[in-house]
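Section 3.1: Structural characterization of target chains.
Under the original work plan, the team committed to producing a structural model for every single-chain target entering the pipeline before any wet-lab resources were allocated. The record below documents one such target. The sequence was received from the expression subgroup and is listed exactly as submitted; it comprises 429 residues.
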Amino acid sequence: MDTNGERLERLADELRERLVRTASEPGGDAAARVAALVEREAAVLSEAERATLRRLVAERSLGLGPLEPLLADPAVEEVMVNGPGRVWVERHGRIEPTDVAFADEAQLRHAIERILAPLGRRVDETEPLCDARLVDGSRVNVVLPPLALDGPLLTIRRFRAGGMSPEELVAAGTLDRRLCDLLAACVRARLTILVSGGTGSGKTTTLGALSSFIPDRERIVTIEDAAELRLRQAHVVRLEARPASLEGRGEVTIRQLVRNALRMRPDRIVVGEVRGGEALDLLSALTTGHDGGLSTVHAGSPQEALRRIETLALMAGVGLPHAAVRELVTGAIDLVVHQRRERDGRRRVAAVAQVMRGEDGAGDARVRGLFALRDGRPHWRLPLPPELGALLDEDAPPPPPPPAGDPLARLEAARRRLRASVAPCEELP
């Protein structure tokens, strides 16, 4: 015998079908149409049952079904749907199961359709993979059968609307206070910084925080596969790549956007993530007057980050010798900031390294450690290299006064704190 909840679930599915069939008819907004439909077709139910029915119909017709409570929770950083069964989420860097589940595969596919339809995207058995971005900047990935053996897979990575400020990263333990001051000075001095790390290590969040140190008067062009960065400067131009249409036309790649950005008179170029042949165009730009850029790359260490950039640049397919690409890397990138996710879920900047040429003068790129976390404690290489130490040298000319509210307003005091650091860091291999 059906329970009352099962009857309401079945009735909600029937009313959803009627709502879809009458979607083109006039009659107010969608919420009002749901309320009117429930009152007309389920008037014999109690007020509590009608309220539950209105919620179920709205979830099936307008929202994302059972995922709505999870997406309303600000602590949820990522939602992972592994078929119609249990849904998993990431909170505070840790993955945990929830009590949320889809009733069946059809309900999950309806939720996927409601996500992709407003974005002009579609997935089916012929095109079972899809990446998209929600209005709030969250990234969506969908995999359908036959590629997904246990039913449709849906992953939603959420982002804070305004990102995290450097002060918030310091408070959260992601950034060491003195390291934050050094990186701020490096950004203002137009050093090119590459943020490396694994998936989910917080690279984009740190990139956004570092970009806040760019002076407000500069023109910034951001280039992303899916727009996530929320820069607060006054003069920001945002570019986003576009996938090919269902007919296979209209694709605009990150590489094309990097090339186009050079014609837009940028003071700074910020690339959300380097993952292909655009690495060569970015390196070329950074070595021809467009210094001070920021970007991220997937890598396991600062040295691995440089090797990955070399490999991606070679993927451009222009036939450059490997040695020439290495010369570009050493000439383009000044610092690598490496981030990792700890076992307890915290994201922390684990190392900062300076990019240098090989000791024999060859073009091989190597790194010299400036900062590292050892057993949870910050270690520094002191004194800093002259070209970096000058940025925090008390005898050096002071930097231009920062704009109102700029975190660098405390730079003078930070110089003394940095000099008080102990336990120099050994050189990274």
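The CA atoms of residues 248 and 344 lie 43 Å apart.
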